[in-house]
Amino acid sequence: MAEVSSPGVLRIAVDVAPIDVAGVLALVSDPSVGAVSLFLGTVRELNDGRPVTGIDYEAYQPMAELELRAIAQEVCDATPGLRIAIEHRVGPLLVGDISVAIAAAHAHRAPALDAARTVIDTLKKRVPIWKQEHYVDGAREWVDPTAAAAERGALQ
Amino acid sequence: MSITVLLFASYADAFGSRRLDVQIGAPCRVDELVDAMRRLPGGARLPAAPLVAVNRGFASVGATINAGDEVALIPPVAGG
Fold this sequence. Notes:
- The complex is a heterodimer.
- By secondary structure, chain A is an alpha+beta fold.
- Chain A has helices at 21-28, 61-78, 109-126, 145-155; strands at 8-15, 35-42, 46-47, 50-59, 83-89, 91-94, 98-106, 129-135, 140-142.
- In chain A, the strands form two sheets. In chain A, strands 3, 4, 6, 8 and 9 form a five-stranded antiparallel β-sheet that branches. In chain A, strands 1-5-7-2 form a four-stranded mixed β-sheet, sandwiched between helices.
- In chain A, strand 3 and strand 4 (50-59) form a beta hairpin.
- Chain B has one domain: Beta-grasp domain (Ubiquitin-like (UB roll), Roll), CATH 3.10.20.30.
- In chain B, 20% of the residues lie in helices and 31% in strands.
- In chain B, a hairpin with a 2-residue loop joins strand 4 and strand 5.
- The longest helix of chain B has 9 residues, at 30-38.
C-alpha cells in the first residue's frame, strides 16, 4: 500500500500510554523533508529547588486534543510544508519519564526547529493539562504557572 | 434547572468533586454560572476570573450557556 505523504498535522494524542518517540518520528519522516526536530519534555527531579519524586498529569482529554490540534494546525497554516506529530502523556509519571513529544519536519531546518518551539510554548499557555508534583517530604501541589509568574513580578 | 460543570485538578480539590450540578436556569451567562459556583462550598477558592470552557472551547465571561452544553472550569494550565 502506498504511503500517504501529504504534510500537515499527522498525529495528536493525549493518553496514559507511554509516548512512542520512534512512532512520532516515523510519522513526520518523509523523502520531502531535510530536517526533523524533536522536542521531549521530561519529569525533572527538582522544581524551584524542591526535590520531586514524580508528577501526576491530568487532562480535560477531549478539549486538550482539540487545542493541541488547533495549535499544530495554526503552525502548519503559517508555514506550508510542515509535518507535525504530538503526543502528551497523562497519569502518574516518575522522574525521567517523557511527558510530551513534539516532532516537526520540513524541507529546511529553521521551520522545523521553530515549529517545535512554537508548539511547546503555546501548549503551555492554552492546553487544558495540569500537573500535581509529589515531593520527597510527601507533600503534593498543583503547579500554577500564573501564581509563580505573579510571585516573580512581586519580587522584582 | 441545573447545569453540570466538569472540574479538574485544583478546582476538583476545592469543590471535592469532579463534576458539580449547579442550580441555575439555562440559558445563562458564563459569569452568572461562576458567581453561582462561588456561593457553593469550596467556591471561595476560585480566582477572580476563572477560565471556562463551553463545548470544549474557551468561552468569554459574557458567552451564553445553553441547556445541554458541556461546561468545564479550567484551572491555570500547566502542561508540557
